[in-house]
Write a structure and sequence with these properties.
Elements (H helix, E strand, L loop, with lengths): L11 H5 L2 H4 L4 H15 L7 E9 L12 E17 L4 E6 L6 E4 L23 H21 L8 E7 L10 H16 L6 H16 L6 H8 L5 E5 L5 E4 L11 H4 E7 L10 H20 L14 H7 L5 H25 L3 H17 L6 H12 L3 E6 L7 E7 L3 H15 L1 H4 L8 E4 L6 E2 L1
Parallel strand pairs: 3-5
Antiparallel strand pairs: 1-2, 1-12, 2-5, 2-6, 3-4, 6-7, 8-10, 8-11, 9-10
The protein binds alpha-D-galactopyranose.
């Protein structure tokens, strides 16, 4: 497996060429953000750099990263943009396209973990007071500073920046929090000439989420954001941190490149709640660990760290009957999902989109039945997607407590599928559907590239 040691700035030229090809960010979006920052800082637009930090999807490998499982991921052509200039001193000044207020602090201030974050959906601040909003969205910038400081990096340069997310996509299970965390890390590193590798930034973003915010999640999100390459499936072993990019075959039987053969549908449920405000995520992590502890104990390995990746498949098979039903379901999800990832990587590498899709849908079902992470409207949306024309496979995105479902769909039928899903969801869940912008209730996206500074 390759190790990722390139500093992000060296990726710059290569990626800027692809900007138009990938349709996000558009030249207009890019110009607007540079203009905003130039005005804020009293500088020329040519001084402004922009971090492009895409959202991720995880077709296979849901809920197993925190147990050291192997996951698959890719980015999409939507995400976070952070325009910035070095401030010339230690001050940080930030404005947001979605939040009110401004965030100000100094990179000299020593940051401490804030485990009790509430309302941390950093892009949508509706319903909270200005003070709450400031506290909430500023936490990701402070968290990035915390991560860098806690590993001995001394920052002298602050930034003046403007951050914005793709419209209507916040708190949707597309990893907007990791995309924001990564964006601030890359901006601080660029302003302070700290050439850190993607691997180091995966760890730094883990510190933001696990230590600073107190969410016990795995490294799926930031790995996808930092490592993915257009057209490939990123495979990450969350225990060893080894990764590889799985290329599809160059041409499909009908002569098309695989990346042109499918589209990614995002179908939104209307439910929004940040993971840091929902105890469900950390509770599931604790259940997986309890299952691992019992299985390790039953096999005479009680001293080993209680993670399901430390339990051999044979040990699981031999002792699973000793687990009470809830824990047995969590463990079943882990072991069956690892298997689906393995088969999915093979299907992807041989261009078998139908097989790949079936595995995604099976993964979605296991999330519902074994991991029990769905909720009524999301399950309904998943079932509608399975019936939509041209859909290869579908599942919840992210933790599955809110947000959207993703689907891989035959590119030539993507528009039909999107209309079908929108109409059916409106019929079945009118209350949730009424919360959605009809223009963006179902989006047709393409694969994206990795986070970078332009
Ligand atoms: C969230 C977490 C990830 C991962 C997914 C579920 O996105 O941040 O670490 O656990 O849920 O696969």
């Amino acid at each position: 497996m390759p190790s990722s040691s390139e500093p992000f700035d060296s990726q710059f030229g290569d990626h800027s060429k692809k900007m138009d090809e990938l349709s996000w960010p558009s030249k207009t979006q890019f110009d607007e953000i540079r203009k905003m920052v130039a005005e804020m800082a009293g500088r020329g637009t040519e001084d402004v750099k922009v971090v492009v930090s895409p959202y991720r999807i995880c077709p296979l490998g849901a809920h197993i990263d925190h147990q050291g499982g192997t996951v698959s991921a890719m980015t999409i052509n939507r995400g976070i943009l952070l325009g910035f200039v070095p401030s010339g001193d230690s001050q940080v000044l930030l404005h947001s396209g979605q939040f009110k207020g401004e965030v100000r602090f100094s990179v000299d201030e020593f940051q401490h973990p804030r485990h009790t974050v509430i309302g941390s959906n950093q892009v949508n601040g509706s319903g909270s007071s200005k003070v709450d909003e400031e506290c909430s969205w500023g936490n990701y910038a402070r968290g990035a500073l915390y991560a860098l400081q806690s590993r001995g990096n001394h920052l002298t340069q602050g930034i003046i920046g403007f951050i914005c997310g793709s419209e209507d996509l916040d708190s949707s299970g597309l990893s907007s929090s990791a995309a924001v965390g990564v964006a601030y890390l890359l901006a601080f590193e660029s302003a302070n000439n700290l050439p850190l590798s993607p691997t180091e930034n995966i760890e730094y973003d883990r510190l933001v989420e696990n230590e600073y915010l107190g969410l016990r999640n795995g490294i799926l999100d930031q790995s996808a954001i930092l490592l993915s390459r257009y057209g490939c499936l990123t495979c990450m072993n969350c225990k060893t941190k080894e990764y590889k990019l799985v290329h599809p075959p160059k041409f499909q039987s009908h002569g098309n490149q695989m990346e042109k053969a499918y589209k990614i549908l995002l179908a939104f449920s209307g439910l929004k709640q940040a993971l840091t405000t929902n105890p469900g995520y950390n509770n599931r992590v604790a259940e997986c660990q309890e299952a691992a502890r019992l299985l390790l104990h039953a096999s005479g390995n009680g001293g080993v760290e209680p993670l399901l990746s430390n339990v051999e498949l044979t040990v699981y098979e031999k002792h699973k009957s000793k687990l009470e039903p809830t824990l047995a379901r969590r463990a079943e999800h882990y072991f069956s999902e690892n298997m689906r990832v393995k088969k999915g990587l093979e299907a992807w590498a041989s261009g078998k989109l139908e097989d790949f899709g079936k595995l995604i849908s099976a993964s979605g079902l296991s999330s519902i039945q074994n991991y029990e992470s769905g909720c009524g409207p999301l399950i309904e949306l998943y079932e509608i997607l399975l019936r939509a024309p041209g859909v290869y496979g579908a599942r919840f995105s992210g933790a599955g407590f809110r947000g959207c479902c993703i689907a891989f769909v035959d590119a030539s039928r993507a528009t039909k599928a999107a209309s079908f899903v929108k109409e059916e969801y409106q019929k079945r869940q009118p209350d949730q559907a009424s919360k959605l912008n009809p223009e963006s209730a179902v989006l047709i996206c393409d694969a994206g590239d990795c986070a970078r500074v332009i």
